[in-house]
Structure formats: structure tokens, C-alpha cells
Design goal:
By secondary structure, this protein is α/β, with parallel strands linked by helices. 44% of the residues lie in helices and 13% in strands. β11 and β12 (513-520) form a beta hairpin. The chain is globular.
């Protein structure tokens, strides 16, 4: 385990000129950098020697990581995106993030995305929606990053990296694109590198932000021949518009040097079956022309085809014909087929929203897709939606309806009407089935209404040393510090109640979304097992015992005069109107600061005795300190 503070950042160093410039500049700025290279197995021996040479000359520590499932990941990338770059980007970023997470490095810097790629693939959609607030953009980018493992599940399943699967890495490590903050022309970069080391003078300038590895160019070839356009075409055009490169540079960057034979050999090695020539689609959309004896809507056709074809082969347009035109050779006369009109692109008639949920969803779609008129029957993907926009839509839907949908639900319910019905049914289910279990405490904890205090509070702080040890524990055990605080809270109430099974209410993920965390202490051999049990419940997005704070009045509560409902939550995750003590009798709010950790207890002074609450606070602190002080990888005994 690296000593905390040894490195300021981890840089993904590919050996290309883009990442080299970032490395030189970071070192010049005084940062202690760890360079990390992901070797996908297609680097040459001289490539790796040159990478080590540059890092050695700069006095920068360097590590090389590989992955046993690289070929499987590249195959899935070709299937999903007709390029290997998507898979390489995911695996290199994930390996870097996991390494940083396990070695207490808080910042990962990527330098293989050009400013044009960042604009095209990350920022342009926000500009189109009129979003300019930096904090909102950062929040949405993080949601997209977290959502990638669901959108490209086939790729991430082959990675099997625990910190990525659990999402723990995103709580501890920040990812930054170097060229989002550095504006430089290609010529300026080349001149800079040539002055730094004569090695760069002899290097080719092809695809300046690339590694120049053969597999990248093979991926470019596949995308160009299977999709009909270059994978980096749009991003490279941004580089020209930004005056970073010339027209000649554009032509050079977009050249594909590999042969068809090389692409076939590579595909055979990774087990990918290339798209045959007759399978290729020559246009940017699919249009279905059909003849029908009876009236049939495009919606019915689309729903029928959904069960027969993969999503990317479902037509965007449906055009009904009196008859299909043929040539004199009895072949379909494609030139005689009419171009689809804009007003039939979704294949459905406009239906206005009626319910409040439909109105909210329609507004979200309008804002994200930049479509003037969204009907409740329109399919998200038919009116301009894609996987990246879907992640952003899920983020905004979850903000309005916390905890009601998962990413996969948006695929299953792709129209406003279906998604609204699904969300409304979840609300009904919650009101009908959720039951919050109170905790029965000894009578000595209750004041019987003698006190006239609306609420009272106590607080304490974990110092920097204890905070760092808690974070180290969470990294080592692949949990989060949230899990630790909730587990101790649960253990404490079990001790106070003298019970082996206990439930506490926890808010650690989405705003106002409460998870009822249950623990059976007879089944726990030590605190580490308890932490992991809490972690599993926090990670379960299908958690049945979850609800919104605002809905608690609709939830069944069998609370007696000598029982309480304890709540624990992370600072910033509640915005409920009114006092939490109107709902819960006792709450613990914690704030994971950069150095110290703050804890704030509040309780209902009309119900609970202040001296007993002070004992509770002291006990929580002592138990937490004991666990942290005694922690060893083998566990801390309950």
C-alpha cells in the first residue's frame, strides 16, 4: 500500500505525444506523478522500451498493467461499437481507477482524449441543452461514468474489478481529462516535445492523441468499413474548428492503413465475426418499406420486430407502400423508393401528456433531446436518443423520482407512457407493501413527555489520523466508509435494545432515498462481515425495503410508546421540508471531509432523555474508535 501523499496524481501514459505532453507539463508544474500504462498485448517491444525510457528520464515512477480478458473485452467492444477503442478506454480507465483506489491516489488524469473528442463525446450534449453550470456538468459526467458499467455491461463483465462493480472507486477517486483544461495546437505540442527530447523528432505525427498501436488502427478500419464512417471523424472535425490542426492533418489522422486481411486475422484472434458486406447499412438510419392488406401502425410493427431483432436493427422509419417497385431484372428498385418524411420518423401519432408523471418525463425528454414536441407514445431512441443521452436521462429522472428506476428500466419502458406507468406502479407498491420496523428500547430511555424540548443534538469529530485509517479500511475490504458508519449505528442499537436482529434507516446513495438496513448479529462473526453485509444492502438497487422520506406517511409503521425509528444519513442527501424529528426520533448525520469526519446526532427531546442520548453518542464514538484502532485485515471481533 502506497504511503498517503506519495503521489499527487496518476497519469494514464500511453506513449503517444498527447499523453507525453501531459506528463512533461505535470512534472514541470511540480506534481508528483505516477505514470501508468495499460498494455493491451499489442504494443511492440520497442514501444514499451520507449515508454520506460521517457518516464525514466523524467524520474517518474511507472507501472504497467495488463488484463487476462483483454481479447474478450476487445471482441465485445467490436460487437457494441465496431471499434476496439471503446473497450480499451473502459479497461484502461478502470484499471487506473482501481490502482489509484487501492493505493490512496485521489486523482487520475487521462490524456488520450483530445479537446475535440471531449467536446464531441462529453460536453456538446450539455451545450445543446443550455447547461453551463460547471457543478451540474461535473455531476452529470460522474453519473455517465458510473452508468457506463450498465450501458456496456458485456464489456465490464469481463473486467471483474470489484471497486468498479461496487462503485466504491468513484467515491474516492476523481477522474480528469487533461485536454479539457489545456488548449494547445498540434504544432505547438510537436515543437514542445521536439525541444524536450530528440526522440520525439523522429516520431510520426499520426493521430497525435493516440498510442499509434496497431490495434487502434485495426479498430478504425473496422468502424469505417462496417459503419461507413470513421470513428473519430466528428471529434477530428472539432480539432480543425478549434484551429488545432490543418486540413492536411485531418486527412492524415483519418487514414486507415491496415488491410482487410489484417482486420480479418485480428477478428479471428479475438473471436469476432466481422459484419459481411451485405449486412452493412449505407445510411445513417434504417427505413422499412412495407405493403399490408389490413391497416397496421408503425408502433405495432416496431413492437413485433423488437422480439425478433436486436435494438440497433429496428427501423427508425416505416413507410407504407401500395406496392414495392421492381426493376426489369425483378430486383427491388431502390431508386424508386421514396425518402421517409420527417413527420413519420417515429411512426406514431402525437399524444399529449395527461398525468403529472407524464408531464415531468415529457419535459425531461424535451430538454435532453432538444425536440420541440414529445408525445407520450414516442420511443426515446426513435426521436434522437442514444446510450449516452440515456444515462443523462436516467440521472434527471432519478432526480425527480429518486430510486424508482434503474438504467435497464429505461430500455424496457422506452416511451413516456410506459415509463410513467412503471414509476406510478412503483409508488403504489411502496405505499402498499413497505413496512418500517421500529427498535424497542428499555423504558429508561424515554422521558414520558416531561421535557419541553423540540429537539436536541450532540456532535463529535474523528481526527485526521482516524479518518485516514477508516478510509484505508474501506479500500482494503472493498466497502465504503458509509458502510462502516451505518454498521456501527446498527450494532449500537442492537446492544441498546438487547436484540439480535435490528433495522436502521439509511440514506447513503440517492437524495431522500431511504434503505432499511437489516442485520442478524447471530450470523455475524466479526465487524468486517457486518460491514460487507451492510455494503450488499446499500448496493442492491432492487432493494425492496427502500422508500422516499416524503412517502413515509403512506408507509405502515407499527411503532409503540417505547420504540424509536433510527435514521443515519450522509450530509447533503436530504432536502425534505420540515424537521426530520417529525418523522424519525433520532438521527445521525455524518460528513466525510477531506481530513476530519464530522458527526451530528439529533433526537426528539420530547420523547428521549438527554443523558441517555449523551451515553449513546459516547458509545458510538468509543465503538468506532475501537474498531479503527484494532483493525487488522483478518477482522475485528464483535
Amino acid at each position: 500500500m502506497s504511503q498517503k501523499g506519495k503521489y499527487d496524481c496518476l497519469l494514464l501514459y500511453s506513449g503517444g505525444k498527447g499523453s507525453a505532453y501531459a506528463l512533461y507539463r505535470l512534472v514541470e508544474m511540480g506534481y508528483k506523478v505516477l505514470a501508468l500504462t495499460y498494455n493491451n498485448g499489442y504494443f511492440t517491444k520497442s514501444d514499451m522500451e520507449n515508454i520506460r525510457m521517457i518516464t525514466s528520464k523524467l524520474g517518474v515512477d511507472h507501472v504497467v498493467l495488463t488484463h487476462k480478458n483483454t481479447d474478450e473485452i476487445l471482441k465485445e467492444s467490436l460487437i457494441a461499437a465496431h471499434t476496439v477503442c471503446r473497450g480499451c478506454f473502459h479497461i484502461s480507465s478502470s484499471l487506473a481507477g482501481d490502482y489509484a483506489y487501492r493505493n490512496n491516489i485521489s486523482l487520475v488524469v487521462g490524456a488520450t482524449l483530445s479537446r475535440g473528442q471531449i467536446l464531441e463525446n462529453k460536453l456538446l450534449m450539455f451545450y445543446k441543452q443550455g447547461i453551463s453550470d460547471v457543478s451540474e456538468i461535473e455531476r452529470e459526467l460522474l453519473n455517465i461514468q458510473k452508468g457506463a458499467r450498465q450501458m456496456d455491461k458485456s464489456i465490464f463483465d469481463h473486467m471483474d474489478i470489484e471497486s468498479i462493480s461496487s462503485g466504491a472507486v468513484y467515491d474516492q477517486v476523481k477522474f480528469v481529462d487533461f485536454y479539457r483544461y489545456c488548449d494547445i495546437t498540434n504544432q505547438e505540442m510537436i515543437s514542445f516535445l521536439n525541444q524536450k527530447d530528440e526522440y520525439w523528432i523522429g516520431r510520426k505525427n499520426y493521430a497525435i492523441y493516440s498510442t499509434n498501436c496497431p490495434v487502434k488502427q485495426i479498430g478504425d478500419y473496422g468502424h469505417l468499413h462496417e459503419r461507413g464512417f470513421h470513428y473519430y471523424g466528428s471529434a477530428t472535425s472539432w480539432e480543425k474548428r478549434l484551429n488545432h490542426i490543418t486540413i492536411e492533418n485531418v486527412k492524415e489522422d483519418l487514414k486507415c492503413y491496415p488491410t482487410e486481411k489484417a482486420f480479418k486475422n485480428f477478428s479471428k484472434r479475438v473471436g469476432y465475426e466481422p459484419v459481411r458486406q451485405e449486412q452493412k447499412i449505407d445510411t445513417s438510419y434504417i427505413c422499412a418499406y412495407y405493403v399490408s392488406e389490413s391497416e397496421i401502425s408503425a408502433t405495432e410493427l416496431r413492437e413485433f420486430l423488437t422480439d425478433k431483432l436486436p435494438g440497433y436493427m429496428i427501423p427508425t422509419y416505416f413507410v407504407e407502400m401500395e406496392k414495392i417497385p421492381f426493376t426489369s431484372n425483378n430486383k427491388i428498385d431502390k431508386k424508386a423508393l421514396p425518402e421517409p418524411e420527417e413527420n413519420i420518423n417515429s411512426g406514431v401519432e402525437y399524444v399529449a401528456p395527461e398525468s403529472e408523471t407524464e408531464e415531468i418525463l415529457t419535459e425531461i425528454w424535451h430538454r435532453i433531446l432538444d425536440v420541440d414536441k414529445v408525445g407520450v407514445k414516442d420511443n426515446f431512441f426513435d426521436i434522437g436518443g442514444n446510450s449516452i443521452l440515456l444515462i443523462q436521462m436516467h440521472s434527471q429522472v432519478d432526480r425527480r423520482f429518486p430510486g424508482k428506476t434503474m438504467m435497464m428500466d429505461l430500455f424496457a419502458y422506452p416511451t413516456v407512457s410506459k415509463l410513467a406507468n412503471f414509476i406510478d406502479s412503483k409508488n403504489e407498491k411502496i405505499c402498499k407493501y413497505i413496512s418500517v420496523e421500529p427498535v424497542d428500547l428499555p423504558v429508561s430511555y424515554f422521558c414520558g413527555g416531561e421535557k419541553d424540548l423540540k429537539a436536541a443534538s450532540y456532535s463529535f469529530t474523528l481526527n485526521k489520523q482516524m479518518s485516514e485509517k477508516a478510509k484505508l479500511m474501506s479500500k482494503t475490504e472493498n466497502i465504503t466508509t458509509d458502510d462502516i458508519w451505518v454498521a456501527v449505528y446498527s450494532y449500537l442499537f442492537a446492544q441498546m435494545a438487547g436484540k439480535k436482529e435490528i433495522a436502521v434507516q439509511s440514506i447513503t446513495g440517492d437524495v431522500n432515498r431511504v434503505v432499511s438496513v437489516k442485520n442478524d448479529f447471530d450470523a455475524m462473526k466479526d465487524f468486517i462481515q457486518l460491514f460487507k453485509n451492510v455494503n450488499r444492502q446499500h448496493r442492491d438497487e432492487n432493494q425492496a425495503e427502500a422508500y422516499e422520506i416524503e412517502e413515509i406517511k403512506s408507509i405502515v409503521m407499527n411503532k409503540g410508546n417505547e420504540s424509536v425509528i433510527p435514521l443515519i444519513f450522509k450530509k447533503g442527501l436530504t432536502n425534505v421540508k420540515g424537521n426530520l424529528m417529525d418523522i424519525y426520533d433520532i438521527s445521525l448525520e455524518y460528513d466525510d471531509g477531506e481530513e476530519e469526519m464530522q458527526f451530528q446526532f439529533e433526537y426528539n427531546g420530547k420523547v428521549l432523555k438527554s443523558d441517555k442520548m449523551k451515553e449513546l453518542v459516547n458509545s458510538y464514538y468509543k465503538i468506532t474508535k475501537m474498531i479503527i484502532d484494532q483493525y487488522e485485515p483478518k477482522g475485528v471481533v464483535l
